[in-house]
Amino acid sequence: MQKTTKPLNNFKITSVILAVIIIISSCASGQLGKNNSGEYENGMVVSAHPEASHVGVEILKKGGNAVDAAVAVQFALAVVYPNAGNIGGGGFMVYRSASGEINTLDFREKAASGASRDMYLDSAGNPIVDKSLYGHLASGVPGSVDGMVEAHKKYGKLSWAEVVQPAIDLAANGFKITKRQAAELNGLHRNLMDFNPNGTAFVNLESPWKESDLLVQKELANTLKLIQEKGRAGFYEGAVADSVVAEMQRGKGLITKEDLKNYHSAWRKPITGMYRGYKIITMPPTSSGGIALIQLLQSVEPYPLKKWGFNSDSTVQLIVEAERRVYADRATHLGDPDFYAVPQVGLLKAEYNKSRMANFNWNAATPSSSVLAGEIKGSEHEETTHFSIVDHDENAVSITTTLNGSYGSLVAVKGAGFLLNNEMDDFSVKPGAPNMYGLVGGEANAIAPNKRMLSSMTPSIVEKDGKLFMVVGTPGGSTIITSVFQTIINVIDFDMSMQKAVAAKKFHHQWLPDEVYLEKDAMDSLSIEKLKAKGYKILIRGPIGRVDAILRTKWGTYQGGADPRGDDVAVGY
Ligand code: DON
Q1: Which residues catalyse the reaction (predicted)?
Q2: Is 455 in the pocket of ligand 1 (CB under 6 A)?
Q3: Most CB atoms closer than 10 Å: which of 222, 373, 432, 479?
């Protein structure tokens, strides 16, 4: 007896000691709850910046839910990822609760009340490109702060003060910039000086920025404190609103005190659709992304993508033809639903999207000049960043948020320390004139006072058999829709893990210009030659998308997909 029990006890003690060592070391490295295959059991945050992902997971560990973590991450990104994270921009949230409730929040910017249809045209009626892209006139009324207040009010569990605090700390104490950020800020030095002659925290006057330099943002910390103390009034009224209006006066911008006070985000019914037995939950207009995503999925569903294989010539050709038709619809039919009757029901009919593919010919590219938007019959009533979060109870949040271009309008509000968006360029400034992403539009997306500009942002959540399956989204302007689409089919059709699906090389077509963009090595050279022989104009370009996603495995664990195209990090626990 003695002989057998003693070694057993020793073994038990050793096991306990080992387990304690593993737990302590895994806590220190943020690996608690990680299984052997790199998956996590309790929850996960995937975002564009390591500091922001860690902020989110700390909130989850404190007992916060996915929305608490999302609010904390949104504010943290406004500090540590100023090229797209923001309080001076806007975005969209798609939410799915553990019990299956779904909802979306539109906190997209609005045109100021003084905006007008032709405000970016010269006397000959031609677009003055820079006017909608840089400086004070390029900004819409910011929506992010109201969005976070609304999201937290409806679904948050921790106090508002608790979820805003990490961002205040990061702004007041500073954070170490990444190598990529140092290079970006140095590259923009002159432009930032031009637009902010009184200085801004983003400009280093002493020497060029280098990796690991501390970026301290005192003014932003004060602004965040006001938001923490007063909620939306801390931003849309009082000292911060005064600073925004003073900026507008300095640079002849349009945003007034009334515009700020009147801004409200909108809860909207999610768009849903089925694809090979999976339910897609995504963003309705003011984003075009959700409708276009479902249209693309419906267009390709009848075809055997899995048999053809990932990025084979047949797969790419089919998808390019679907994208051509869907983006033509986008240009004509999509705009702010509060101003324009978007024919949503018609666009989302599977027969409609099938019929759009009927005139596609395997032997030759369909010229975009021969593709118009489809006719929708019957009357109807009616540098961005993405982060994905799942909490311990399996509530999920998918948020894409933006200033539009990298560092937005390049104007940092003096005294308040945050960058303003250049989202006005997402309107169609003149019918048929391309915006910075080459997208064209018309009446549906024309500028009007207080109207929201059309977006391509596609935060999405996928369900399988009534259970959470994937949380996904990306930046990338017009390529957002196709990157989200390709990430979803990479998992569903091509059986990739989340990380592989995110990292996989992507391609893109958007009707106009009539060109197929490929990331380097997205296709083999023989397949490229086959497509060229059919009349496709193929161009190799830089990175497409920067997807941050989470996959729930059939064992109930979470796989992260953090895009290697950026500094993105998946942190689980
Ligand atoms: O809302 C939109 O569609 C654009 N403003 C998104 C811009 C974007 O993704 C820039 N990042 N790469």
Answers
A1: 384
A2: yes
A3: 479
Verdict on whether the full-model pTM lies above 0.90: yes
**Nearest residue by C-alpha to atom 6 in ligand 1:** 477
Active-site residue flag, 384: yes
Q: Are 507 and 313 in contact (CB under 8 A)?
A: no
Tell me the C-alpha distance between 83 and 178, whole Å.
Answer: 13
Q: Where are the domains of the chain?
A: 44-267+383-443
Q: Which residues have a Cβ under 8 Å from the Cβ of 431 and sit 6 or more positions away? A: 440, 441, 442, 443, 446
Give the Cα separation of 97 and 94 in Å (integer): 10
Cα–Cα distance measured from residue 573 to residue 570, given in angstroms and rounded to the nearest whole number: 10
Give 515-558 pLDDT, tens digit per residue.
999 999 999 999 999 999 999 999 999 999 999 999 999 999 99
d(CA 406, CA 183): 13
Nearest residue (CA) to ligand 1, atom 5: 404
Nearest by Cα to 556 from 463, 461, 467, 465: 467
Q: How many residues in the chain? A: 573
Q: What is the dihedral of CA 41, 42, 46, 51, to 10 degrees?
A: -120
Please give the Cα distance from 374 to 355 (Å, whole number). 10
